[in-house]
Design a protein that fits this description.
With about 260 residues, this protein is an alpha/beta fold. It has two domains: about 180 residues, Flavodoxin domain (Rossmann fold, 3-Layer(aba) Sandwich), CATH 3.40.50; about 55 residues, 2-Layer Sandwich (Alpha-Beta Plaits), CATH 3.30.70.20. The chain is built from seven helices and twelve strands. The protein has a six-stranded mixed β-sheet, with helices on both faces. Strands 3-5 form a two-stranded parallel ribbon. A two-stranded antiparallel ribbon has the order 8-11. Strand 6, helix 3 and strand 7 form a beta-alpha-beta unit. The protein is globular.
Length: about 260
């Protein structure tokens, strides 16, 4: 692929970023740059792309693109630049997330040409709840690279013809309703916490502050579990009953392996 590949991602626990990295390998651009919009300190200035290609990906939360990701992706500006769209979900369903991401890209001036839904380890997964544990795995990443190769062919076709190519993805409008943000968050086991600050560094909304103790702004928490998965001491835990109930339902209904879906 000629031109620069810009990779825009929102990936609190890293699964989306891993999928995008494998897809980028398959696309084979001579030059790539990461636009990682996961952290809350990236500013609000528009990010303009006048040429090259956009590879954009986000996790799926309750069938939608996380509102924090939507807000940051809205900084992107395309000028007829082609785009590859990727949603990564935790083995339940991606519902309207893929079409939402496609619409978001198109609304910002990009031309969506290829899309895919991949599976990543569920945010609520752990030793006692191994929901899509370890995914994307090696098999997923092979599929991701192959998808990148196919998307690269689509991009070449677009570059040679200059004509927009149709792209249909599952989902519909109006999008699945997003429930109001719940007023709870992971808590800190002070007997294990060393005040290292990793949780605050990982939090995509800046909801955690370490000042003699770990302070969490619960209404700002999006339940991504980046702090839970990333704490080196296992000191961040989710004890909220609603999350326990959802996790139990997932264990009962979403353990059969789902495979990536490609749309070109």
């Amino acid at each position: 692929m000629n031109g620069e590949l810009s990779i825009a991602c929102f990936s609190p626990t890293g699964t989306t970023r891993r999928v995008l990295a494998a897809i980028a390998e398959g696309i084979g651009a001579k030059k790539t740059r990461w636009l990682d919009l996961t952290r809350p300190n990236g500013g609000n200035d528009p990010i303009k792309l006048d040429d090259g290609t956009l590879l954009i990906g986000a996790p799926v939360y309750a069938g939608r693109v996380p509102s924090a990701a939507v807000k940051r992706f809205k900084r992107l500006r395309g000028n007829g630049v082609p785009a590859v769209i990727v949603a990564v979900y935790g083995n339940r369903a991606y519902d309207d997330a893929l079409i939402e991401l496609k619409d978001l890209a198109a609304g910002a001036g990009f031309v969506p040409l290829a899309a895919a839904a991949f599976i990543g380890e569920h945010s609520f997964a752990g030793e006692s709840a191994p929901i899509a544990m370890g995914r994307p795995d090696d098999k997923d990443l092979v599929v991701a690279r192959e998808f990148g190769e196919r998307a690269g062919g689509r991009l070449l076709e677009f570059a040679e013809s200059g004509k927009a190519l149709s792209l249909e993805v599952p989902g519909g409008t109006p999008y699945k309703e997003q429930k109001p943000q719940a007023d709870f968050s992971p808590v800190t086991r002070e007997d294990l916490c060393t005040l290292c600050g990793t949780c605050a560094e990982l939090c995509p909304t800046g909801a955690i502050v370490v000042d003699g103790r770990v302070i969490t702004d619960a209404p700002a928490c999006i339940h991504c579990h980046a702090c839970v998965k990333g704490c080196p001491e296992g000191a961040r835990v989710m004890e909220a009953e609603p999350i326990k109930l959802i996790t139990a339902w997932l264990l009962a209904n979403c353990m059969d392996r789902r495979e990536p879906e490609i749309f070109i």
